Amino acid sequence: MSHEPTDTERPDPLQSPVRPTSALAWRLDPLRGADRLRAVPQSRPTPGPGQVLVEVRAASLNRRDLMIMDGTYPIPATPGVVPLSDGVGVVVEVGPGVTRAAVGDRVTGTYFQRWVAGPQRLVDVREQYGANHDGWLARYVLLEEVSVVHVPDHLTDAEAASLTCAGLVAWTAVTNPTPPGPGETLLTVGSGAVALFAVQFARAHGARVISLTSSPEKAKRLRELGADEVVDRTETPDWHLAVRELTGGDGVEHVVDAVGPPTLPKSVAAAAYNARVTLIGAFPATTPLTDPFAGNYVSIRRIAVGSRTDFEAMNRTLSAHRLRPVVDREFPFEAAPEAYRYVREGTPFGKVVISF
Predict the structure, then answer these.
(1) What tens digit of pLDDT does each residue of 284-312 get?
(2) Model confidence, pTM
(3) Which CATH code fits 168-303?
(4) I need a labelling partner for 166 at 20 to 30 A (CA). Which of 139, 188, 197, 283 fits?
């Protein structure tokens, strides 16, 4: 249970706007339509038993955050919630009984409040930072102790703020239930942050990587990141045939599809016999596919980020291989609405970060 000050102890956050330059939190105002971010004052929360108070240094955006703003995400936003599931900061106070973090630790948090390990249960999905629990777009974030994850020392704050959603879902897609290895090929569909993480994780496990993208510039950067081959879908609309040709006609053993239902049929067509196709994340409802298997013998799954145990395993690999998230651009805290617009309207290659 949160131990933040009650409404009688501080002004109503949505009734007390301040200038963005002096604001300590951004909240989603349910009465403002599409541009729902509102700058408000924030009192310093007091951590209760099993809670950790973090002073935020940086936070990052995901496609999920646009869906929450638009009202198309499966978990409706709590009115006035502080958004963003991804961030990093320094522990400034711990509540009674806390043993997993200490003042001065640099930490992030899990996407789901209490999913520590094992199969995901529906109860795990329902509690999310930045949706129905205050997230990272504020000076302070109050975490449950079970949510705390220490970040690799070699990462900058902007890089460490990019791990919770895109990084972890890519890690889960690539490595669970079994990672690819030498002699196997993994295809990444899309060139967003999830796909960029997937390229690095697959290469760290010794797999060959084929990436699908939409421009020569992105193709060049994907090769620099570690992709062995890149197929430009604008030049090769039947990209699934090109992927099969690159694999001698056999297809790939693993597909990480970070786009969604529109590309799923070709992802399946590019897959080898008994391959694994992983469809990433939440997306607005679309017309169901009549035959997603397209006559192929593949395993299709849809995953939602990962557990804290998965997160900690990912961080060990990041540290061991000195891997770094790709950061496209940083915005100052007072420019949070501009960061949202850039993610929605621009063409970022990597993560978009909001820094204090």
Answers:
(1) 655 566 677 777 888 999 898 999 999 99
(2) 0.89
(3) 3.40.50.720
(4) 139
